[in-house]
Amino acid sequence: MNPQPQLGAGLGLRGPHVAGVLAAWPSVGWWEVHSENYFGGGEPVAALERVRERYEVSLHGVGMGLGSHSAPDAQHLQRLKSLVARIEPALVSEHLCWNRGAGRFFNDLLPVPRVDGAVPLIAAHIDGVQEALGRRILIENVSAYVAFEGETCSEAEMLAELVVRTGCGVLLDVNNLYVNTLNLKTDPLAEIARLPIGCVGEIHVAGFEWLDDVAIDTHGASVCDEVWTLLDAALARFGPTPVLLERDTHLPSLDALVGEYRQLEARVAGARERAMTQSPTLTQEVR
Question: Which of 14, 71, 84, 193 has the lowest CB atom count within 10 Å?
């Protein structure tokens, strides 16, 4: 399994901004792309290889559906494996979600019901992906808009158990934590505290929007103050960790987005400086 890369602040790279990055080479620590956008090969992958020559790159999957009842699609996994071999990313991540059932595919990140039997099933799927890729992957917590009856644990507790069973890591999306707080009245600080120190390999921050009385995880707005505060809490608990700013809709210009990134960059640098003066227990391994 690959060691934890020493990354700071990064920025999500979306299609409309690729040409601008190749032309201007902005001062950004690293870039993250959605894996599936590069499964087709051709010019998109060639452009990503050019980006990779100058920056670290993370591959973030949105279509694996590790929480589905059936094992990950073999063709999907093979395409990811080929892309990983070609790009040699610093990090590879997927979501704790399901998207397939009864022969149908749902183009969404549907939250997994946290009921008896779910953890062994998902753990087997994670094991299969990690074995195929020959590396550790990170699993991201997701936004939810309804709660399920009969759940036996919180999402963070499920992630912690998956870490123990498979050796995977966690991609902690603090915007998703906040969206769930608004919609389901969960406690984001309690969820952060339930994750073992040493298991978080990446953190995401993003913005959300309101639709009627529901907070929707659109990644279409600037990061709000409450999410920045949750980021500070996560960095205080887990120590220096790669942190990514995501923006998927209502994309601003590349210059404007890099301007937003500077706020994240300063925050991450400040947290790193504070961590250097604190106890080394922040970086202890998962027990």
Answer: 193
- Spatial CB neighbours of 49, under 8 Å, sequence gap ≥ 6: 86, 87
Number of Cβ atoms within 10 Å of the Cβ of 148:
11
pLDDT tens-digit readout, 115-136: 999 999 999 999 999 999 999 9
**Domains of the chain (ranges, CATH numbers):** 9-283 (3.20.20.150)
Summarised one tens digit per residue, pLDDT across range 158-170 is 999 999 999 999 9
The pTM assigned to this predicted structure is 0.93
Beta bridge partners of 215: 210
The dihedral of CA 128, 132, 135, 138: what is its sign?
negative
How far apart (Å, rounded) are the C-alpha atoms in residues 173 and 137?
A: 15
